[in-house]
Every structure is written in C-alpha cells, then in structure tokens.
Amino acid sequence: MQHRDTETDRCCRMLLGDVFPNFEADSTFGRMKLHDFLGDSWGVLFSHPGDFTPVCTTELGRAAQLSPEFSKRNVKLMALSVDSLQEHHDWSKDIMAYNNTEPGSQFPFPIIADDRRELVEKLGMLDPEEKDHNGMPLSARCVTRALTRRALCKVQTERIVNTSHRCMAR
After folding, report:
1. Where are the domains of the chain?
2. Buried (b) or exposed (e) across 119-142, using 16+ Cβ within 10 A?
3. How far apart (Å, rounded) are the C-alpha atoms in residues 18 and 88?
4. Cα distance from N-terminal residue to C-terminal residue, the chain
5. I need a surface site. Which of 27, 30, 47, 63 has the fewest CB within 10 A?
6. 47 near 163, Cβ under 8 Å?
7. What is the SS3 assignment for 75?
8. Residue pLDDT, tens place only, 45-98
9. Is 49 within 8 Å of 139 (Cβ atoms)?
C-alpha cells in the first residue's frame, strides 16, 4: 500500500512532546507573546482558512459561548488565520452577533492576525491545496491543544492536533 500525502500529513507536523514554538504576533487583544499569554494554562489554538466562513464562524461562536467553561478549567483559547487584524475585529463582532451576545460585548479570546503568512508557515499550518483569490495558500483548519508548564523559564508543551479539510466541520 502506497503512503498518501494527506492534509493531516502536511499540516501541523509537530508531534506529542515537541515544544510548541513561542511567537509574538498582533491579535484582537493587542500584541501578544504566546508563552506569556498561556502562562501555566492549557491552550487551544484554532487555525482557520478565513474569516466570515460558515464553519469557522459557528465553530468560534460555540467556543466563545463555552469560554467560561474553558476558563474554569484553566484553558485559554486563541484563534489564528491569514486575514488582517481589521478583518478579525469585524469578524469577531459578527460572531458575537451570531451568538446573540449583548451589543458591545468583547469577543472572549484573541484572534491572531497573520496576513503575511509568516506564523502559519513557521507552524506548518499552510494548506497548499487551498488558495485565496490571489493564489496564496490558506491556513489549514487545525485545532491544537497544548499543555504548557513553566520550569526554569522554559515552556514545555505537549500537543494534540485535529485537522480537517476546509469544507468540512470538525
């Protein structure tokens, strides 16, 4: 049987026990450093191909609704895509409206902007088969769950990845 290069093989290539790379990026919560943001919390990173897509809107909408439950369990949520910071701000308002949240409420977790695709490339989250209107690869739809522990200023991370095609819900 011949091995097939699947989206799961191409995306999110880190393995359990790998240290999740620290990064600094702009987000809807301002400039953030991943390891500082997580501290000693668990972290869930949602990577999605684009803002305002139906699956991603409902997925992040549900995560936003459940964010108090995640917080009770010391889990911090984050999202990432190749859209601009302004698009993320607009989309977060759209998600909150979809959730019938009180007007003016802030989206409960940061959405990281990576419109130059530097971060998704570094993390191995580009899907070479899915392209935007300019022919640029989109970030793959991945969920990354990471456990971080601080020890001597070193962040150790265990990681589990779930990847699906952009046309499929998780």
Report:
1. 7-164
2. bbeebebbbeebeeeeeebbbbbb
3. 29
4. 27
5. 30
6. no
7. strand
8. 888 888 998 888 999 999 999 999 999 999 899 999 889 999 999 999 999 999
9. yes
- CB contact at 8 A, 23 and 117: no
Burial (Cβ within 10 Å: 0-12, 13-18, ≥19) of residue 154:
exposed
Q: What is the mean pLDDT of the chain?
A: 76
Token digits of residue 44 = 């869930």
Scan for tokens 């970030």, then name that residue: 139
Could you give the 3-state DSSP secondary structure of residue 153?
A: coil
Encoded tokens for 161: 């990845």
Tell me which of 60 and 135 has the higher pLDDT. Answer: 60
Q: Is the pLDDT of residue 145 over 70?
A: no
User: What's the distance, CA 98 to chain centroid?
Assistant: 19
pLDDT exceeds cutoff 60 at 159: no
Please state which of the four CATH numbers 1.20.1740.10, 3.30.43.10, 3.40.30.10, 3.90.1150.150 is assigned to the domain occupying 7-164. 3.40.30.10
CA nearest to 22, candidates 160, 150, 161, 163:
150
If residue 25 lies in a helix (H) or strand (E), which one and from where to where?
strand 24-27
